[in-house]
Amino acid sequence: MVGAVPKPRADIRADRTASGARGRALRTALISVLVPLSLTLVQCGKAPNPAALAANSQANVQGNVPANVQVVAKTNQQVASSDSFEDRFPAPQFRERFPSASEGFLQRQMSDFSPKRAVQQQPEQAPYKVASLAPQAPYQRPPREDLTTLVSMKSSAFPYFGNNPASDAPFLNISKGDRRGHRSYSGRVFWQDETYNDNRVLMHVPEHFDVRKPGVIVVFFHGNGATLERDVRDRQLVPQQVTDSGANAILLAPQMAVDAADSSAGKFWQAGGLKRFIDESANHLARLTGDPNSARAFANMPIVIVGYSGGFLPTAWSLEVGGISDRVRGVVLLDAVYGEMDKFASWIESHRSGFFVSSYTHYTARRDRELMSTLRQKGITVSEDMDGPLRPGSVVFVETGDGITHRDYVTRAWTRDPLKDVLVKMSATPSLALTRVASTNPSASSR
Q: How far is residue 173's CA from residue 262's CA, in Å, rounded to a whole number?
């Protein structure tokens, strides 16, 4: 070609050789990068290799594995150890949940949560206000949830180390080594550390309760074979019945003999036992509701005692020797007249400003009819239905028919939720003798 200087043939071959070497090197580099990546991508869409899994399993058993299998096992172990639940969601350490000595939660005052004026506020602007559908309405207490809790109290029924008034002998009349127990009337022995060592009281304050309004304290004595949580709260729904009644009432339910066929009254056998119980409860209720100044109001509220089944015994003795029987505005017995008729008759006769209700099945029918006869002989009017409101001096006996069981009596007697029905009828009375009992549910009075 004109003007071109041809290269020697050897130079051409050298150039081609160098170019081929560079191409091969480039292809080798690309293959070294793409092949592992392709293998990784292929494995992402496949199930684990059964042979590899079998090899891992045998390695755990035999401990003699080929080198290539050991690499697979080691890789699997690294992945498992780095992707375990504990690695991804580590359990919080104590120091992570609570501040150390050099740390602390930021303490705030109530003023920190009050509305603030704007920093750059014009003189003609009004102070900041919270939007409201009724800006001129008076302040109302914000709603809260029901308060239900268990509180240990010295004045609760147990432990009790005094005498049994029925025999004037020590209540704990059985010893076995260091253990002390009580032999019941049935002959069965219940040990103090198992049956008579729970001093807790179930306290319930409904969300609508207002200590500034007239109110009432309901003291509930449960029956045999019961616990406060399993039976009084969850099965018999006593706190719920108090709330559902709409009455301005609170509940106190002491633990009696724990899950045992025993009706012993413990400290409620003692003179002034009920008064000490109410006085101590008042301080706990004041703390529970967040108003220390309310203790005096709780300590002076009228009382309604409800005794179910074996709860008749602490009910009767509280009326007889409790020290504040004049503050008891009502007594409700739910299939519970198994004895102590003289104590019930005496309270009814001497406290005509209170009411008395006894509902019964065939188990207690004979004793209830005997008590009715005694009261009528004393000239006291006795009613045998629960159709009307409860008034001061009301004495009501209600027989329930077949199909009503003793076990379910607290939730189904003459009506469903009988305790709720009593509180509704009590709150509806127009009499001045029960003015401290006020319903917060206006529709309740229509029942």
A: 15
